Amino acid sequence: MLLSLPLYRGIFTEMMKILLINPANAGILRAVGVQFPPVGPLYLGSYLEREGYQVEIWDFCTPGESPNYSKYDLVGISTDTTRHNKAMEIACRAKQAGCIVVMGGPHPCYIDEEILASKWVDFIVHGEGEVTLLELIRALEEGGKDWEGVKGLSFQRDGKVVRTPPRPVIEDLDSLPLPARHLIDMDLYRRTKFGDRPITPVVTSRGCPVNCNFCSSSSFFGRRWRARSPDSVVEELEELHNKYGFGAVAFVDDNFTLSPERVVAISEGIIRRGLDMWWWNFSRAENIVKNEEMLEVMKRAGAKTIYIGVESASPQTLAELGKRMDLHTVIKAVEVLKRHGFQIFASYILGSPRDKAKDIHETIRFAKRLDTNVAQFSILTPYPGTALYEGLKERIWHRHWPFYDSQHLVYKHEHISFIRMEWLLLKANLLYYTRSKEAMKDVWQLAKRHKWGWGTLLQFIRDYFWGK
Prior knowledge:
Blueprint: E1 17-22, H1 28-32, H2 39-50, E2 54-59, E3 74-78, H3 84-96, E4 100-104, H4 112-117, E5 123-125, H5 130-142, E6 153-157, E7 160-163, E8 193-194, E9 197-202, E10 205-206, H6 217-221, E11 226-227, H7 230-242, E12 248-251, H8 260-272, E13 278-282, H9 285-289, H10 292-301, E14 303-311, H11 315-320, H12 327-339, E15 343-350, H13 357-370, E16 374-379, H14 387-392, H15 418-433, H16 437-449, H17 454-466
Parallel strand pairs: 1-2, 1-3, 3-4, 4-5, 9-12, 12-13, 13-14, 14-15, 15-16
Antiparallel strand pairs: 5-6, 6-7, 8-9, 10-11
Helix pairs in contact: 2-5, 7-8, 8-10, 13-15
């Protein structure tokens, strides 16, 4: 049961013991065995450690029993939409053990009223969590200080949700210590490969100035793009290569190439230090077309794959999704990337509110025409915190969060039934990956590399139909 707020005050005689938790993957990520270290909790851990706190991190994506929650004063849980149910189960166990429970991530802050009503979660952190979590912990320890003065929080008082003023974003990302990877066993994350090299994620910027209505990044991290310095990024790459033995990284920023000059500086730093690192990153199509010189330096520095969001072959659908993009630019970007020898991942979203079956078929044909190495098809999903969610709120069928995995239709579509939509998704994948012998060979090699077998297939079917 949630402790009343006055009972928190004055009960700590020494620095709090803190456990940060990453719930297990759900859906496709679990089925195909993608397993990355939890960068968010690792940043929180390093920030708290720098301030003298004893921190442990528990990743439910790795083998092991559940932690003994009674050892800790505070349990922090980072989660997203598909893992919400798992996160709430963890919160329940931690609360039963007498812990203060804090939750954050790109989901809880948008449904805080529902989560706090459960009585299993005491506080929800909104947006970037490093400073907010530290200030909350200090407020709890000091006893006499009211946490209503901590910006970026929500909690319950007398049965009502209290939301403190928003916290300003962290301006200088270089002021943050590198993720505390020493708090986890990095050897457990070597199965996920890029070619024959273990790959791990790196975040080099936060914030997104783009206005896609299906993405919560801009509302969670802010509209203004903030980037780490090239020296800071290369320092982290050197640590990953020399200390942890990773030969590849995934730059998981939404807008890695927004500043071509910074990308060139990072690339030159990799070359100068002699780091043998392969890497992939996201990029907008126009940044590729306008900056071929950047691509040349990236290639020399080890860049292998670039991921672009195409989303649809319909200009009207792109406009509806808030994607300011010209399809001719996409075609040109793919041509440029192929000419420079990059592998290309392209994403497509099926089921925009205005889409009809013919629009989806045209998108499939367009994907086949682009002929990228990988095409990722998904069904438009209205995630909490997005403009899309607000616009479709009255048409959403259910809020069974494990099904919000971009593989299921969760709102009432005007033109296409949910059964037909999911068949169109399956059809898109079948048509794309059987388009040529080379494409089928790529899929087979990918399956062998990750040791996908019948067990993986059965797990995928289970997750697809039951949303476990």
